[in-house]
Structures are given as C-alpha cells and as structure tokens.
Write the structure tokens for this entry.
Amino acid sequence: MKTFWCSHLKDEPNAGADALELRIDSKTYLSADGNPVEVIRGLTLRLEAGTFGALMGPSGCGKTTLLRIAAGLDSDFVGTRRVPPSHRLGIVFQEPRLLPWRTVEENINLVLPEGKTATDLGPLVETLGLAAHMAHYPGELSLGLARRVAIARAFAVRPTLLLLDEPFVSLDETTAARLREELTALTRREKITTLCVTHGLAEAIELADHLFFLSHRPAAVVFARQLHRRELPRSKADIASIQHEVRDALARLDGATASSPEGR
Amino acid sequence: MARLLSIIVLVVIWAIAAALVHSRMLPGPLAVVSEIVTETASGELPYQMGCTLARVVVAFSISLVLGALAGFAMGRWKRVDRYADPWLVVLLNLPALVTIIFAYIWIGLTETAAILAVALNKLPNVVVVMREGARSLDPELDEMARAFGLTGSVRMRHVVIPQLVPYFAAASRSGLSIAWKIVLVAELIGRPNGVGFVLGSAFSLFDLTKILSYALTFIAVMLTIENLLVQPLERRAQRWRRRT
C-alpha cells in the first residue's frame, strides 16, 4: 500500500464554506514499539460556521487526535482540512498546558493580541472565579483552577474557532454548570464555531447543535444527530428525552462497531 | 553552620600539621594570611587576580554563548546533531593542554590565543548540557504556543528560554570552575601575568607560601562570585517553583 504521509493539509478557502470541514481518509501513527496504528479511517465531519459540535466516543478512540488535526497541529494525515480562511483559534487541551514560570495573568496576556491585557477581561475572569488568583503561579493552583485558567485563555483570544478537549472535567458541578451556560451564551453571541470533546451525553445535549459519535479505533463517525436550536437553553425534560432517543438510536446500530457514550 | 564548622576544623588541622612539621614545605595559615595581606597591600595580588578574572570572564562568556547556540541547535534538530556530534566527541576528549599548545603555536603567545584556547576547552561541556536542555523541551507547551499562534520572539522568551534556564545555570556553574583552572594552565605556559604566571614563578622558587596565598584567594573570589552572582540569579529564575 502506497500512501503519502505528507501534508494534504490545506487551508483552502471555499465559496460559502466558512464551515469547519474535516475529511480524514486515514491517520496513522507509530506506537512506542514501532508498529503503525491506524487511529482514524474514513472520517468526515462538517460543522457550519457559528455552530457547536459535540464529539463523543469510547476512550482512546482518537478524539484528541481529531481535535489536534482540526487545530492544524497535526498535518501528518491523509485527507483534507478546511477552516475559514482567516480564523482565530482558541483551544483548551486536555491538560491545562500553562507556563509554570508565568503568573495566571501573564499566561492569559501572552496569547492576546498586542495592546490588550487581562485587565480588559474583567467579566470573563470574574465568571471563572480567577480574580483572586491572577498573581499566582500555576503551581500554586489546584487542577480545577488551572483548567479554568486554560479556559479563560482560550476565551480571551476572542476565537472564531474554538476547540475544547473535555474542558469541564475535574471542575465541581456548580462551576461546570455555570461555565456551560457561559460557554453556550458566548458561542452563540459571538457565533463561534466550536468543537468540544466530551464524555457526558447530557452535557453534550445541553451545549451542542450537532452530536457526533465516533467508533472504536480506527475511528469514524458512526452516528450524527442535529438538534434544533430553537429551545435554548434546553430544559431538563428536553435533555432527558433527547438523551433517550440518542441512546435508542445508538443501541440500534451494530453493537460491535457502535460507540456508546460513557458516563451518566 | 555545619559548613562553617567543617572549614574551621580544616584550618585547625592545617595549623597543627604545619606547627608539627615546621618546614618551608608546609607554611601555616598565619604565614599564608600575612602573605596575602602584604601582596594585597603592594597591589600585586589584585593586579594578577584581575588579569586572570578578566580572562576567565571573557573566555567563559564566549563558550557560554556559542555553546548555548550550538547545544540548542543540536538538541532541537536531529540532523544537526548527527553531523555535529562527532566533532563534539573529539572536542570533549581533547586534552586542555593540547588545545592551549596548538593555540599558542598557531596564533602566537597572545591574549587571543589564551582566551580562545580556554573557550574552546569549555565549549563542549556547555554544548552537552544545553543539548540535554533542548531535548527536554516540553512538546505540549510547544504545541500550545503554535495553536495560539505565538510569534517566534514571544515563544523564545516565554516558552523556550525559561525551560533552558536550569540547564544554563548548571552549565555556567560547572563551567566557571573548569574555566579558571584551564586559564591558570594557559597563563603558566604563555602569559606574562595572571595567577597562573605567578604560580609558575613561585614554583621555580619553591615559594609555597605564595602558591597557597594565591590559590586560597582565588578560591575565595570564585566562591564569592558563585554566592553573590550565580545563586541569586538562579533563585530569581526559579521563583515560580512552589516552595516545599
């Protein structure tokens, strides 16, 4: 089999396509023992501009890999990636990835365009409960706080494309709920195209316009579902009924290849 | 406290031994101290010390800058490493004396030759340490920097250099002590001044008091530099680490 592992990655501007569009025919990496492992095969994903997509699937199926490809951090795959020609990327990695030698404030300021400082971000900092921690170093923060800094950093760049890798893990439920609300409001208001990896189906339904379910390795989208945007924020009853419906649909899919959302 | 006590014990043992032997071959602490005082008063010791220190500083700076650049390149790019590594191995195993002799023969008995020889001797150690530092750069932070589109200079200042600081400190610490020892050899062979030159002439006169007085003063100066310059700088760079 002959394949070209070079960058088929092109940020092609396309008419009417301010959407995020990924077509990954194959993504392989070398495991520690030198064997190639195919993590993604034949995956297509399209997210209209300004919409929110939730990405679910079994652990280790390649969600993080997919997100890295979407971010343009990994061009070593066969396929194409289309992003809006001029976009600002905000990203929350699975780990906070803060600079330990810079304070919280400096960490946020660092990614901002020149001339802007974290002091302009009062409301955001307030919502995330970081006001008292701006002068601290990341080593002095709990993991939950560090994750909130990472979220603040991603929001602070006023992104047009936002990629989130399980952003609400290790936060207490109250904070997580408040952040979800905030995230929904922000992404709608600013029309941010958002792709969010999550394990919680209820969380995904609360946030998203599109649900994507991935299969086991090599990952592909086995089930996608579009949600109506009108009834936002979704009520508990709505979330429960959609959840039910999605679970049924997933169960109907071939049990061997279908992914079932974890948690909850 | 323990350090002070151990130094006092050392001096006491030395004094007793000198008193027992009572010979020119082992001058006691008092004789050495009075020699230091007279040599300082005459201006001889500060002058010779200054010559040597200047050479140490210049040679050391050259090797630190060049070594940091080369080490970084070798740690970051495998290709560079593959080509440059054999040179590094040669330099690492080249005896200091050989470099000094060749420098003097090729360039002449000049200041440039002496400094160049010392810098060249020190260089490979810096390269090795900095290469290790560049290899251990956190790829996750690198990725973060790329994702947020940080510019090259911002990345260098806030992401890369802070990670290299501990390695830089280690390189300069071991470097300083190596550099001044090599400088003495270079001075002994081909310079008309400096501590190495003084030690050489004292050797031919069997003047052990002078040798000890210069050696001890030099150690004291180096310790002062370490305590007043290197350590505070290191502390400043590491202040973000959580106190334990």
User: Anything to note?
Assistant: The beta strands of chain A are 20-30, 36-47, 52-56, 78-82, 89-92, 161-165, 193-197, 210-214, 221-226. The interface with chain B takes residues 68, 71-73, 89-91, 93, 95, 97, 99-102, 106, 110-111, 137, 139-140, 153, 157 of chain A (CB under 8 Å). Chain A has a mean pLDDT of 81. DSSP finds seven helices and nine strands in chain A.
